[in-house]
Amino acid sequence: MQPLRGITVVTVEQAVAAPICTRHLGDLGARVIKVENRAGGDASRGYDEVVNGLSAYFAWANRNKESVALDVKHPLGREALRRLAGTADVLVQNLAPGAAARLGLDPGELRAARPGLITVGISGYGAGGPYAKARAYDLLAQSEAGSCAITGSAGAPAKPGIPIADIGAGMYALSSVLTALFVRERTGEGAAITIGLFDVVAEWMGYALNFARYAGIDIEPIGVGSPAVAPYGAYRTADGQTLVLGTTNDREWRRLTLAQCRKAAEAAGLGHARLNKPTEVLRHPQLTERDRWREIGSPAGPVLGLLPPPESPGWDWRLDPIPALGEHTEAVLRELGFAAGELAGMRAEGVIG
Description:
Blueprint: E1 8-12, H1 17-27, E2 31-37, H2 56-61, E3 65-70, H3 75-86, E4 90-93, H4 99-102, H5 107-113, E5 118-123, H6 138-145, E6 152-153, E7 156-157, H7 164-187, E8 191-196, H8 197-204, H9 206-215, E9 232-236, E10 242-246, H10 250-256, H11 261-268, E11 271-274, H12 278-281, H13 285-288, E12 293-296, E13 303-306, H14 329-335, H15 340-349
Parallel strand pairs: 1-2, 1-4, 2-3, 4-5, 5-8
Antiparallel strand pairs: 6-7, 9-10, 10-11, 12-13
Helix pairs in contact: 1-7, 6-8, 7-8
């Protein structure tokens, strides 16, 4: 069973926040049609070529999708986009502020015609407020909302190694879409959802913001550790490795004071971990022995990707290929009723490839 089979998602997206949301909707069985700029496509396609010629971000966030490449500034391209939007159960976009409305994707207008439609708009700062029209990317949202100031070490703030604003926005978008689909089953009404990267980071800053408000303290970053409890961090061992310990109360601390750290921690039931590099995580037994790595098709041949984290008996994850730019353009447009002559005209006008 693929839980979202029969749901169509149309997405005008790039980079990470919207693509990671729609990839997970695709994992759950939804049909995902990704609209890309005909001139180069999603910008993340060109970030690097490390995955057999594909970029690492694009390969990670774009399986299970059909790529439709359009010049949406051309009237024929906008007409194709309008027809596509008319087929969607869910419409997702993370365009620059104001761009969706200019393309005819204003949520109010679309939902006035189709009240059951679910729209998602991901932006830097969300709807309203003095920053609503400001562009923001992951690093900028993290800096503005404070997460960089509590990451790194004292006097040397740092961006977390994963793009938490982008991924967090994508996950809130995912959970919001699933909630909206559930509500629609009960009421027939869709939803107009907006999510700001800044709001995501501010929400996840709850612990630090409570310290700031109620104690007047800006928490100092302390590397791989915690400002709340100790020992809870990374410690060098006699054999040159790094052991990460997580003790959260005095009982665990008393059990820790033993000779051989990791063996003792295991025997005592203490939280602990090894500080692994990404190359070491690739062969982590918790992934390999549970068959978490799977082959995903791509324009460059099979590549490996992880199964989604949730597990449920009877669910069958959809793991369709990563698309080439515009791979599905003509097939999708034919579904929308464009005749062969119209497609030839669009090619001649440069609207499609």
